[in-house]
Amino acid sequence: RILILDFGSQYTQLIARRIRESHVYCEIHPCTMDLASVRAFSPKGIVLSGGPSSVHDPDAPLLDKEVLDLGIPVLGICYGMQLMTHLLGGRVEKAEQREYGPALVQVDEPTALFQDIEREDVRVWMSHGDRILGLPPGFRVLARSDNSPVAAMADAGRSLYAVQFHPEVAHTPCGRTLLDNFLFHICGCKPTWTMKSFVESSIEALRDRVGRDRVLCGLSGGVDSSVVAVLLHKAIGDQLQCIFVNNGLLRKGEAETVERVFRDHFEINLVVVDATDQFLGRLQGVTDPEQKRKIIGNLFIEVFEKEAAKLEGTRYLAQGTLYPDVIESVSFKGPSATIKTHHNVGGLPERMKLELIEPLRELFKDEVRMVGRELGLPERIIMRHPFPGPGLAIRIIGEVTPERLRILGEADAIVLEELEAANWYDRVWQAFAVLLPVRSVGVMGDERTYEQVVALRAVESVDAMTADWARMPYQLMGRISNRIINEVAGVNRVVYDISSKPPSTIEWE
Ligand code: XMP
């Protein structure tokens, strides 16, 4: 396995994903990881990520220099290269010009790192302010660009390699080959990390850990909790008990689908609690988005706890925590500002005195989807768009009432139906309807109408951190609008949201 030491680059997760895509297991750890822990991890290779700092900053993140003396191959990327140079006695200086964007690199020495890569005019992606002007002793220049006399360097004898550009981004077309060269030719890794092997080994590990105890799992119908449930069911069968809370704020048909798939098809022990009345009761008169989230989050815990208390002898609670959440919480950077408090079940395990089981905490989202396929989950669930915990409540701007829920539920179902029919569902990150708190005048037949407005939201994104509005075909938008206005009583106007995130957000509340 490979160890990635993170110096704060926005691309660190991409490095990990590229390596995993080559079927080699890797983990990201903060650059402050001490020498003993690095040794204990026993990596076949180490990657030093890029980062926003300069080695000359007074508080620049450093690295225990002995990490470079372990005899383990190291690949420094961007800041990782500058740090390697700085620590080993080379010279790093501020470049006269920041180099940002595409660049052409000439390869002088086709060592193992550049095997199967062109030698001239290799397209790469640069993003740096400092550059290497003096090599550390023992190093040779492997490649250069106009602005970087050392675009890549190595001390092959010590297996230390470094590149100034970013092989992990798609704008460096030869990046995959370069990373593969590092993994397979320099580190001697074998491509054994597959989701099939993951499923096999985690089933075994889950059986070992759980023994004869019982595990509780909150099923939401989303990809992560679905995969957790089916994986655990494979491992421990009837010792798994799932609870699905229907808060009445779900998409049309959602509760039925969950029952059909998990109880009928997979034969998992499943309790479905219909708490619609409780949720709607507490939401009465509430219009503030954060207030809605709090009420829904708290009531969810209440309902879940009450249901769980009926099940005796439960020791574990299973959750669908993913690797990006884990990295986020170990990163050496502070957490970013709260824009919206995302509802999750964070407080549950402590209150319920249950031990946590997180079988997916090593996986990225695309890997979770592959595991889902491996386990035979239907494609509809595997490719399902993210759906917020507070559900339709934060898509009904203003007060949530049964009537407004009906309107939004019906409009939303039409959006999804039409998207699927036009093969657009998988092309967008999320698509949904929002019910606005305004009414507009219309004319139907010869009658004046004064009814509600539905906004259509469809975005493209890779991680929900940034998003852009989807350029859906006009015809598709037209069909959706037509159907909503004709079929959903109470709506006489549909508008399309063309804002990007930032400065807007994906949801309206
Ligand atoms: P925003 O609206 O912040 O959404 O751009 C980013 C992603 O997070 C989802 N989202 C939520 N998920 N509870 C959740 O579980 C929430 O309260 C919540 N608010 C937003 C949103 O659907 C999008 O995928």
Automatic annotation (TrEMBL):
Reaction(s) this enzyme catalyzes, per UniProt: XMP + L-glutamine + ATP + H2O = GMP + L-glutamate + AMP + diphosphate + 2 H(+)
**Short name of any one Pfam family annotated for the protein:** GMP_synt_C
Pathway(s):
Purine metabolism; GMP biosynthesis; GMP from XMP (L-Gln route): step 1/1
Q: Which residues form the GMPS ATP-PPase domain?
A: 193-384
> Does the record carry Ligase as a key word?
yes
Q: What is its EC number?
A: 6.3.5.2
The UniProt keywords, alphabetically, are: ATP-binding, Glutamine amidotransferase, GMP biosynthesis, Ligase, Nucleotide-binding, Purine biosynthesis
**GO cellular component terms attached to this protein's record:** cytosol
Q: Which residues does the annotation say bind ATP?
A: S220, G221, G222, V223, D224, S225, S226
List of catalytic residues: C78 (nucleophile), H166, E168
The molecular function terms in GO held by this entry are: ATP binding; GMP synthase activity
What does this protein do, in the record's words? Catalyzes the synthesis of GMP from XMP.
Q: How does it assemble?
A: Homodimer.
The name under which this protein is listed is GMP synthase [glutamine-hydrolyzing]
Query: Which species?
Result: Desulfacinum hydrothermale DSM 13146
